[in-house]
From TrEMBL:
SMART domains: BTB. It comes from Funneliformis caledonium. Residues 11-74 form the BTB domain. This is 1605_t:CDS:1. InterPro entries: BTB/POZ_dom, SKP1/BTB/POZ_sf. PROSITE patterns: BTB. Pfam families: BTB.
Length: 280
């Protein structure tokens, strides 16, 4: 059966995928894929209309997925990376080393990972995408209780699952033991001032607020502990320094490094997240 989209009269190579024939152009394939460039060197030939033409059969491939890949690299057909093809576009672009498709899939993933962080954590691990892995892990760790019950959680490697459990367990353990003295530890005012002494009550109230939650998310804990408005600080710079500088540093020492999502890195009020790194 001939492909309805990619069977070009001037094509100079036949690719057979799942009984579907694609008559395409060697130069297009070679420019898009180093794997096809090597395959063409050793391709056999077949006769069509008394003319010899190269032929390659791809086993264990879907005709629809291959058609989508061709549609992406051929300028005459328009197709985008979307939710329905993202998994297969990653797979087929990696298998055949189609760099343009792989980069487009990566761009889509970076733009959309917040909508399904567990899917993109799995894909980033599989295809070695360190930045995407780190970003997706921020959201998975932050809502770990829910994500660990998702069947897709089991698609992650044992190494990543253990790293996520470890990060979450350490967070919960440290949160359980957290007290005001821990947070005030090693604080030295920049100027001699008694204002912060009076902030102990504020810390007690914030800790009580945190512990009203069964297990508050790391980002919620950080938000409650480490931010203060001008109104709450009563205009005292020493109080702002305590909450906006000292407490974030203590949070890092107790729980580990936190960062905003990369897309929010210029927003001082953005949520801060714990994370793990690929290969870390």
């Amino acid at each position: 059966m001939k492909s309805k989209i990619h069977f070009y009269p001037d094509g100079d190579i036949i690719i057979i995928v799942d009984l579907t024939e694609f008559c395409v152009h060697k130069n297009v394939l070679c420019l898009a894929s180093t794997v096809f460039k090597d395959m063409i060197i050793n391709a056999s030939q077949t006769s069509i209309n008394d003319q010899m033409i190269m032929e390659i059969t791809l086993n264990n491939e879907s005709a629809k997925d291959f058609e989508d890949a061709l549609s992406f690299i051929y300028p005459s057909v328009y197709i985008t990376i979307n939710w329905s093809n993202i998994v297969e576009m990653f797979r087929i672009s990696e298998k055949f080393k189609m760099e343009v498709i792989f980069m487009s899939a990566t761009t889509f993933a970076m733009e959309k990972f917040q909508e399904n962080p567990l899917l993109f954590l799995s894909l980033s691990e599989k295809y070695g995408l360190k930045k995407l892995f780190k970003e997706a892990s921020k959201l998975v760790i932050d809502d770990f209780i829910e994500f660990k019950e998702d069947p897709a959680f089991q698609t992650l490697s044992n190494e990543t699952i253990l790293a996520l459990y470890k990060k979450h367990h350490e967070y919960v353990l440290n949160l359980h033991h957290l007290d005001v003295e821990d947070l005030k530890c090693n604080y030295t005012p920049k100027i001699r001032c008694d204002c912060v002494t009076g902030e102990t009550d504020k810390l007690f109230k914030r800790l009580r607020k945190i512990k009203r939650f069964e297990t508050p998310t790391p980002s919620k804990t950080y938000q409650i502990l480490c931010t203060i408005s001008d109104h709450e600080s009563n205009g005292y710079s020493c109080i702002r320094n305590f909450f906006n500088e000292h407490l974030p540093n203590r949070f890092k020492e107790i729980f580990g490094t936190v960062e905003p999502l990369d897309s929010d890195r210029r927003n001082d009020k953005a949520n801060r997240y714990l994370f793990i790194e690929l290969g870390g």
